[in-house]
């Protein structure tokens, strides 16, 4: 009987069977997966899940930017995949109210609770308003500037100096993740956990993010019954998710409780949320649970996105040595000939560096996939694709940056010049063409902050070291919901002359 209530339980083994069959028999030329009876296109996807971002890009390229995925029967897994800017504009801006994230998204991202990434409608508006008031506060920006520089001087430089002096190769992605983790914890909790130090301490919460983003991507492509069963049995990626959940709670709750007594902090994100929450709910009782969700979402926003962009930037620069020279020249010319710390305002002068970061974001947008659930049936502008209420829409930002029709024949090349206007400033591109920071009313609230932080860190590293990727190091995007480097980025650092 359980089989009939949960058809996934027998469809999934059938998928595995077809997958093995596919492996043994055909080598299909077209990337578009076969639509099998009963199991739909799922076997083709599972076969390619280890390279999901490139695989979907190949399909979308072949299908002109939009593709209808047929899931196994009775599982409600039919989806529309798109990377077409016209559809992105329609879904994220023009018809925004018809495209909430929806209840499916909340199920998949349950670990994020009632945080900003996970909610729609009134609660999202509350989060957005409160977060915006914090991030646009002048005090916040001067805190950010100070924290970043202090961390560069007291965390990043000592660690990189150590590895450079010893001539030991180091995983730059790991270093950058530690940097952004410490930084976001300092901003949210006024507490620096010190994950960035020479001995590279193991902090379960810091590492848990990597497990979470992997498991969450796989949930998009597995029937719900299957990942729920794995969750119950505590196996595979779901086991890691359960452990990550525990690590987050053990890290965050004590900091929330400690913050309740923190009177000396003149800039306090948690206190702002606490006050707003109490006002909204008309009582002095607030929920620690709610603050846990709020801070976890901010940590996710602040840790993975910027560290990932910087990691890809250093890899791209290593492949394009001329870009490194141009970045060094720009810093020298615009920052009084020698390396010094610069303010957020001054960072705006670094137009070429801005272009290099934008290229990194175009080719490797950290948030690579968005998920929307139409409230009413609708017709998408590209090819007049019909989406009905039960159809999830997955939007592939990674693919948008790799379409010749959108970015030209040289779309796969790393060209910071692409971002420089005729007047020498940063060239504007509409967010539906460059959706790395999302588009429309839910556009990223931390974009400015991210660029300031990334410019400071990139400039600090580039001016002090030549970064050399270790020969033969394998490079591929991870099969996770944030596109990290699958194998990290092992580099050797050579300190430049003063
Ligand atoms: C390179 C860096 C960054 C990139 C590429 C990026 C990208 C994005 C994307 C794609 C979204 C939409 C996510 C979704 O709705 O599922 C988003 C939302 C958001 N980002 Fe960022 N982000 C970056 C840095 C930051 C930073 C440093 C912060 C600050 C803590 C931040 C705060 C937020 C917030 C609060 C939202 C939610 C907006 C909403 O739903 O209304 N982001 N970001």
Automatic annotation (TrEMBL):
PANTHER family: CYTOCHROME P450 (PTHR24296). It comes from Handroanthus impetiginosus. This is Cytochrome P450 CYP4/CYP19/CYP26 subfamily. It is found in: Membrane. SUPFAM superfamilies: Cytochrome P450. It comes from the Eukaryota. InterPro entries: Cyt_P450, Cyt_P450_CS, Cyt_P450_E_grp-I, Cyt_P450_sf. Its main location: membrane. One of its GO terms (cellular component) is membrane. The keyword Heme applies. Belongs to the cytochrome P450 family. Heme binds at residue 444. It is a single-pass membrane protein. Keywords: Heme, Iron, Metal-binding, Monooxygenase, Oxidoreductase, Signal. Its cofactor is heme. GO terms for biological process: lipid metabolic process. Residues 1-27 form the signal peptide. GO terms for molecular function: heme binding; iron ion binding; monooxygenase activity; oxidoreductase activity, acting on paired donors, with incorporation or reduction of molecular oxygen.
